Amino acid sequence: MDIIINPKANGGKAVKTLDKVRRILAEKNVGFNVWETAEPKDATKIAAELSEKGSDLIVAMGGDGTINEVLNGIDAQKTTMGIIPCGSGNDFVASANIPTDVEKAVEILLTATPKPTDYMVCGGVRGLNIIGTGIDVDILKRCKKSKILRGKLQYLVSLVISLIKFKFYKFGVVGNDGIKKEKEALIACVGNGTRFGGGIRMCPKAKIDDGKLDFVIAGKLKKIKIPRAFLKLMKGKILEQDFTSFSLEEKVKIEFDSPVTVQVDGELYDNLDFDLSIVKGGLKLIRP
Hints:
Layout: E1 2-5, H1 14-27, E2 33-36, H2 42-52, E3 57-62, H3 64-71, E4 80-85, H4 91-96, H5 102-111, E5 114-122, E6 125-127, E7 130-134, H6 135-145, H7 151-165, E8 169-174, E9 180-191, E10 213-219, H8 226-234, E11 244-249, E12 251-256, E13 261-264, E14 267-270, E15 274-286
Parallel strand pairs: 1-2, 1-3, 3-4
Antiparallel strand pairs: 5-6, 5-15, 7-9, 7-13, 8-9, 8-12, 9-10, 10-11, 12-15, 13-14
């Protein structure tokens, strides 16, 4: 077992979690190696090297960012992936039913069998949870600039500010027939997982093994209606709103008049083509 950990995850608390993991695995006489990341994309490089050398199980230990980096590094056909969550949001694991309790997560890692799990590919970048652009990108950029708040509170404060200042995106959704439909929206996102931002259920119906993408567009609405829309979003009822469209797809393509930033599981990519497809059951993931 190879464990890749981001020691800075959750404000550095991941290190304490690792101490618990070491103790549990030692007590159970389970062999393991630990690899620490030092900078962004390290987990991808380490996972790629380990996978190439024949590692049969690589465990991502951190938050959604670490999980995403490991996903983008492993050879999904050869290597099984595991997760020990210790991030601040832990959004994807909620969809995978992996507990945030360390002992329970390790127990699942040691006893459960790998299950085929869908993942997404957008412009060559893999994603497990939610890929989108619009206000979610604006929020993430504000979060990265914040030096004070952390975790879900940081996201919520950034969300409120973004709702006040945000300018709607204009784009074209290209259908399977090649016809482009012009849209103007608050957010356009594709979900394999259900939530982001530490529990905000943007794609509440999504399933990680149904072979489908949940395509959600929260369209343009009057600013006076934004507070109510915000409350509905927090309650996981965004799909019930008349300004929201929802469909199940296998491919999603969006074209923009000018380059935009796309977020993939919370990681920001500039000028990434929003040409997205699903890899059905392409990942062997240890989960309940």
